[in-house]
Amino acid sequence: MTFTSFTQISNGVLPAVLDVAYLGERFAFIAEGSSIWWYSEIGDGTDELGLDYAQNQDSPANCVAIAVLNDELIIFSQDVLENWSIGTSANAPFTPNEGQGFHRGIACRDTLAFCDNALFWVGDNRVVYRTGGSAPQRISSSSIEDAIRQCDDLTSLSAFDATFEGHEFYVLNIPDVATFAYDISRIGTVENAYGSSYERGEWQEWASFGRPQFRARVSVVYQDQVYVGDDTTNDLWLMQPDAWTDAGGPMVRQASAFIKIEEGRPRMDGLVLHCVEGVGNAAPPGVNPVVEMRYSDDLGHTFSRWRARPLGAQGVYGGRVSWQRLGLMRAPGRLIQVRCSDPVNVAFSHLELNPLRPAN
């Protein structure tokens, strides 16, 4: 379906609308500064007389956002989440689902996104949640939550969803701090403080060159292509799997690993990076790509210099990306970082410490 024009809903009855959802052929409207929310008549979003409204049951706090999930309205307020279903009465077309609420609110409407048949958002306690099971699940790590705490204005947070190369992401922008992308496709088992375990995806950090965060703020998928909107210039960018630059600037791929040391001073005689080699381009730039490595023995406060090694020109396979004589390590451990900024299709697998040398 293609829309060629849009009509503004202006009936003089609704207060300033903050968010809107559609369920059961009715529009539901969240208003600024109110715990009351309004709904339209069937099939007509402009038909709102001012008497068609409902109010949250579990809290008098202001509503912040609204969404639809599994044929239910999900009302997000400043301190609770409520589920409402389609009712049978014409005078009350939506009814609250008793016992299904969640006593945590949402930090900002713009952190709400729909991914993987679930809703994702930042809670009022600076924790990232997703719907699932009997109650929403915490998916943020302690480091993600620490980054959110560095944001003084939670209303400036924003998020969007994007599917790229078969991976679905919830992308969270924290202004002047960082951008974190939650890869829903890379699921691992996490154990909580109470000894029980649950599945959680993998977080990545995204950034555009020369900036602490990724330049995209919103996204849309059209004909299997992912388009993102620039947060500063309002340009529209296309996320492409075969492009290795970011808005004309370099795209730096970086990964980290930590070697835990409990006691003693073990020596790092050699370090091997297992990765795809022979990825150089046929013509500049990126004919002879390199990968760089540095390390820190004080948990990232200071680092060694970057040391470059060749990744191999196009078709040059069988090489070994390695570094030797890297000195003594000490507790609590050594942080390793590797990166590549050449415009090539690089893929890191894992690091190998002190590999055995073949016998003569």
In short:
With 360 residues, the chain is mainly beta.
Task: Describe the protein in words.
- The chain has 360 residues and is an all-beta fold.
- The chain folds into 2 domains: 234 residues, Methylamine Dehydrogenase, Chain H (7 Propeller), CATH 2.130.10; 101 residues, Jelly Rolls.
- It has 1 helix and 28 strands.
- The strands form 8 sheets. A 4-stranded antiparallel beta sheet has the order 1-2-3-4, with no helix packed on it. A 4-stranded antiparallel beta sheet has the order 5-6-7-8, with no helix packed on it.
- A hairpin with a 2-residue loop joins strand 13 and strand 14.
- The protein is elongated and about 80 Å long.
- The termini are far apart.
- The mean pLDDT is 89.
Give a topology summary.
Layout lengths: L16 E7 L2 E6 L4 E4 L13 E3 L7 E7 L2 E6 L3 E6 L7 E3 L16 E3 L2 E5 L5 E3 L6 E2 L3 H8 L8 E7 L2 E8 L3 E14 L5 E10 L9 E7 L2 E6 L5 E4 L5 E2 L2 E2 L2 E8 L9 E6 L14 E7 L10 E4 L10 E4 L8 E8 L7 E6 L7
Antiparallel strand pairs: 1-2, 2-3, 3-4, 5-6, 6-7, 7-8, 9-10, 10-11, 11-12, 13-14, 14-15, 15-16, 17-18, 18-19, 20-21, 22-27, 23-26, 23-28, 24-25, 24-27
Shape: elongated
Largest sheet: 4 strands, antiparallel
**Proper CATH architecture of the largest domain:** 7 Propeller
Count of DSSP strands = 28
What is the number of helices?
A: 1
Instruction: List the secondary-structure elements in sequence, H or E.
Output: EEEEEEEEEEEEHEEEEEEEEEEEEEEEE
Provide the domain count.
Answer: 2
What Rg is obtained from the alpha carbons, in whole angstroms? 25 Å
Q: Can you give the helix content as a percent range? A: under 10%
CATH topology of the largest domain: Methylamine Dehydrogenase, Chain H
Distance between the termini: 70 Å
**Helix-strand category:** mainly beta
Average pLDDT:
89
Biggest sheet, spatial arrangement of strands: 1-2-3-4
**Poorly predicted spans:** none
Percent range for β-strand residues: 35-45%
Name of the level-1 CATH class of the largest domain: Mainly Beta
